[in-house]
Every structure is written in C-alpha cells, then in structure tokens.
C-alpha cells in the first residue's frame, strides 16, 4: 500500500513543471519565431544585392533539406511505428486497469497487455508504413516484418534467455514450453496479419509526401557549430527533464513489481503518462529548434533519440534501486532483474522517442508552412 500524500505531492510537482515548461516553450518559441518571421519577411523585401551582403542564418536556410528522408529510414520508421503501438497499449491497459481492478488477480495485467498489444498491431503498421512510404522507402514488406517483430523479438529473446537460467536453477519462475509456443503463434498468426493490414492502410491513406518545401537534389553542407549544439550532446541532455517528471512514479512501479506491493493507483499512472508526453514533446521541440537554427537538418533521429534517452536514465535508476532497495543476489535473480528492466526501459525509450518525433514533426511542418520560400 502506498503513501498517497507523497504520491499527490510528486504529481503536483510534475504538474507544476509541465505548466512551467509549456509556458517557457510557448514564450521562447512565440517570441523568437515572431522575430525570425519578421527578419525573413524583411529579407524578402530586399533586392538580391542587399540579400547577398546581408548575414543570412537560421532555420530558414535549411528549408531545402529539412524534409530530406532520415538516414536508415527502414529502421527509423519501424521504431516510430513500434513506439506509437506501445503508447496505444499503455493508454488502453491503464484505462482497463482503472475500470476493471486488474490488480486483484495475479497475471491478469500481463495477459491483458499481451492481448491489447496483439490487437493494436494495425497502429504499428499504419504509422510505420506511412512514414516509410513518405520517406521514399521501397522495401515495404521488409519494413513491415521488422516493425511487427521488433518488440516481440526483444521481449521473447530476453524471456527465453532468462528461462534457460531459471531451468538450470530449477526455479518456479521458468516459463512452460507451451506458453512459449503460444506466444510464437500469436506473433505469426495475429500480430503479423494485423500489421500487414495497418501497413497497407498507412501506405494508401497517408503515404504520399506532402511537404511544404521542395527537397533539394544536393544535400547542403552542415556548418561547424558549438559543442553543445552537436546532436550527441542534445540527445544526452534531452532525457533529463522527462525522467525528472516520472522519477517518483518509477519508484512506486518498481516497488510494486520487485517488492510485490499491490499497485492500484492507475489514475496517478494515467496522469504521469500525460505529463510525460507533454514534457517530452516540449523538450524535443526546443532541442530541434536549436538544432535547425544551427543549420543542421538531421532533426529526425535527433528528436527521436533525445526523447528516447529518458530510458537510459530509467535504466541507471534501476541500478540504484537494485543495490539499495532490493535484497536480490545470485546469477538468476540478477539476470532476471536486469533483463526485464532492460526490456522495460527500451520499450519506454521507443515510446518516448515516437512521441517526441511526432510532436516535433508537427512543429517543423508548421514553421516551414508559415514562412515564404522563393
């Protein structure tokens, strides 16, 4: 049973951070974008000679490259599709848990999550397939297979590895062979066909590239920039605030899972999910704006990875939790803990990355639609 006052305080804290962040992002972007638009419209009125002498800089300069396909579009679109599916699963499972009191029966949460994951496979296919088509991808069947099996392969691979250790130790946690076969059947006969349906719908309904700017034939060279504007630095710093907003909730979720306390406050979890989404989108938009202003158009992977880096901080926190909050020891318990924490962190990272990319994509499209381009 959890301390509700601490929980309320943590939610209130996160909520205040969201209000502050949204206000800050709106203020910075509204003011700076207004100045940018004013500067660009002034440049429009100059003659060619003045414009050549003028100091041209900023995000308008990369308009011919900003909608260029990302590097490795097949992997990228598969990750975005999987992230959208994980988000849909999280949302539905939390709502079902709020209505149905899933915490009363052991294993009901896991079976609900597996069922919902299989049922939401068209979401993965739709978002992954349509993005891959918009980026000019040709090998759409390969993309569909990678998108469909990315998460199941990661989960099953980890579970099978831990299972071998469990069998060696004759542990009661070993998964029966029949269950493994059933999971493989769900992957091939439910997830794959539904993913195919989603991919075909995505490619046909929103697979046409409709960018507000034309993409140049030759990529523009990326100028030198300060070290803190480098994508690697932006990626590392991008996950700190989203992790800060879910930090307290992580403690309660870890405790319910590893200390076998009953977790029943799914309303709090829903609030935290909403807060996480808002913080992630705000942070990635700011990161992308700085990147584009430095005339670096590689924003797709940067926006995805800067949001996904939240998972690194969650995994680092799991180390602290293991050594200071649990009494686990031995090869089996250690591999069980860190194996499943790696799966949880990776899934969370892919979800955050997809949310960050989707929000940033809407922002990028919006700012380039509003600026006049020759």
Taking pLDDT < 50 over at least 5 consecutive residues as the criterion, the unreliable ranges are: 49-55
Q: How many extended strands?
A: 0
Spatial shape: globular
Q: Can you give the helix content as a percent range?
A: over 70%
State mean pLDDT (0 to 100 scale).
84
Strand percentage lies at under 5%
Q: What is the number of helical segments per DSSP (H or I, 4+ residues)?
A: 13
Class by alpha and beta content: mainly alpha
Order of helices and strands: HHHHHHHHHHHHH
Largest sheet: none
End-to-end separation in angstroms reads: 63 Å
Query: What is the radius of gyration computed over CA atoms, rounded to a whole number of angstroms?
Result: 23 Å
Question: What are the key terms here?
Answer:
374 residues; mainly alpha; 0% strand; globular
Question: Could you explain the architecture of this structure?
Answer:
- The chain is mainly α.
- It has helices at residues 4-45, 48-53, 73-100, 108-119, 121-134, 140-168, 177-206, 231-238, 240-258, 266-293, 299-308, 310-325, 330-370.
- The longest helix is centred in the N-terminal third of the chain and has 42 residues, at 4-45.
- Mean pLDDT is 84; it is low at 49-55.
SSE topology sketch:
Layout: H1 4-45, H2 48-53, H3 73-100, H4 108-119, H5 121-134, H6 140-168, H7 177-206, H8 231-238, H9 240-258, H10 266-293, H11 299-308, H12 310-325, H13 330-370
Family: Belongs to the nonaspanin (TM9SF) (TC 9.A.2) family.
Transmembrane segments: 6-29, 74-99, 111-133, 145-169, 175-197, 232-254, 266-292, 304-324, 336-358
GO cellular component, one term: membrane
């Amino acid at each position: 049973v959890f301390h509700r006052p601490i929980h309320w305080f943590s939610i209130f804290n996160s909520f205040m951070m969201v209000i502050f962040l949204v206000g800050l992002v709106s203020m910075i972007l509204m003011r700076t974008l207004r100045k940018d638009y004013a500067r660009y419209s002034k440049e429009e009125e100059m003659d060619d000679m003045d414009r050549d002498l003028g100091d041209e800089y900023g995000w308008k300069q990369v308009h011919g490259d900003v909608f260029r396909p990302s590097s490795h579009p097949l992997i990228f679109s598969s990750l975005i599709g999987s992230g959208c599916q994980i988000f849909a699963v999280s949302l539905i499972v939390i709502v079902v848990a709020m209505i149905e009191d899933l915490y009363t029966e052991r294993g009901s949460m896991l079976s609900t999550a597996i069922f919902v994951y299989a049922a939401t496979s068209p979401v993965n296919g739709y978002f992954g397939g349509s993005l891959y088509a918009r980026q000019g991808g040709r090998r759409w069947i390969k993309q569909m297979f990678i998108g469909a099996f990315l998460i199941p392969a990661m989960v099953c691979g980890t579970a099978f590895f831990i299972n071998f250790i469990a069998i060696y130790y004759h542990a009661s946690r070993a998964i029966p062979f029949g269950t493994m076969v059933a999971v493989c059947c769900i992957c091939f006969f439910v997830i794959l066909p539904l993913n195919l349906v989603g991919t075909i719908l995505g490619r046909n309904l929103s697979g046409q590239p409709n960018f507000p700017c034309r993409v140049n034939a030759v990529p523009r060279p990326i100028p030198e920039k300060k070290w803190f504007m480098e994508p690697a630095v932006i990626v590392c710093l991008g996950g700190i605030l989203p992790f800060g907003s879910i930090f307290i909730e992580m403690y309660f979720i870890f405790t319910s899972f590893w200390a076998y306390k009953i977790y029943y406050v799914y309303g709090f979890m829903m609030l935290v999910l909403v807060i996480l989404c808002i913080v992630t989108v705000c942070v990635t938009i700011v990161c992308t704006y700085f990147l584009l202003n430095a005339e670096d158009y590689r924003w797709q992977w940067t926006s995805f990875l800067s949001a996904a880096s939240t998972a690194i901080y969650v995994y680092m926190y799991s180390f602290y939790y293991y050594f200071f909050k649990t009494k686990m020891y031995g090869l089996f318990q250690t591999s069980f803990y860190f194996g499943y924490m790696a799966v949880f962190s990776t899934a969370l990272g892919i979800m955050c990355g997809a949310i960050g990319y989707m929000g940033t994509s809407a922002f990028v499209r919006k700012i380039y639609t509003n600026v006049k381009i020759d």
